[in-house]
Known about the structure:
Number of helices: 12
Largest sheet: 5 strands, mixed, barrel
Helix content: 40-55%
Distance between the termini: 179 Å
Order of helices and strands: HHEEEEEHEHEHEHEHEHHHHHEEEE
Amino acid sequence: MGKVYSVSEITMVLKECLDGVPFFNELSVRGEVSNFKRYAFGCYFDIKDENCPLPCVYFAKDPGYHSFQAKNGDQLVLTGRLSVYPKQGRYQFYVKDAKSEGTGSLIERREALKKKLAGEGLFDESRKRKLPPFPRRVGIVTACPSAALSDIVRNTYNRYPLAELIVYPALVQGDSAPNSLINAISLAQKGKLDILIIARGGGSLEDLAAFDDEKVVRAVSSSSVVTVTAIGHEIDFTLVDFVSDKRVSTPTAAAASIFPDLSQIQEWVYDEERSLFDAANRHIIKAKEKLGLLSSRSYFLRPEAVYGPQKDRIENLTRRLENAASMALERNINKVDMLSKRLTVIDPGMVLKRGYSISLVDGKPITSVAQAHRGQVMETRLSDGIIHSEILEE
């Protein structure tokens, strides 16, 4: 075995090799800016083509830096040197000058797709659905394991432990990520969920490219479940953010945006309970005060003073009613006696007792001799019986 080198030694050998070759000390390179970050001392970014990224640094002390206004997606031609940054063990391009060549193809394609989808109405606010106030079953589409998933789970159970979380693992970066995301979203539609979270941690424009894929965007827009996107950092926006029902800035913020705080709910319940108790207590106090006032009234202290006059009035009315009834009864008795006497006078039986009789032929009274005919049988009714006779002459 030959000499064993330390990592630092290997790194420094590489740095010396690059620094010692004139070709690497004065280079111009073309590419598209991504993962741009600006600091007080300068800025870090990647410049890339379709295949590879190249880490770059542009220090504020270098000429032309203060007029450098690049952003993600810009197409630049950079002049500088290629070397190794020992502390991180990586090679990077030290920029000395930068010229803009417009917007890069990745940004252009993204903007063209954004315009197309917006024209179809997929970004309209009218399509946005409201989040349920107390979700119980929540799905999460993200890489598993991942920091994004850990943040969501931890914050959910700290905030609202009643929730049930169902994870649908998916790739969130790389060429296979779009199909993986679509499959996970499709599977989640069968889970009887209240909300579906689609999450990923931060990254460069290329890292988040799967969430700008047209098929993924359409899968999110057609979701039957209310969707929440929590992708990247505060400043990161992907196309799925525009079609989801709600976009939150980071996975860490997802739980606070979706779930109520159980401790706040409990505090609210306690406050409402105290308010109800206080209100009930006030009603009881008022009722006692009213009862005290009423109990001091004369009809409670001397009830006979109230019902005595009413009792006398009732007794007087009773006597008057009895007298009126007695007089009405007497009048009716006299009237009945009078009518009875009149009926007695005109009673046919009484007439027969006085010596009169009545004759009937065929059951009909005869009041004239013209009504009688020879051979007919006639009934003669007397007070004590009936005589049957035959008419011999008319």
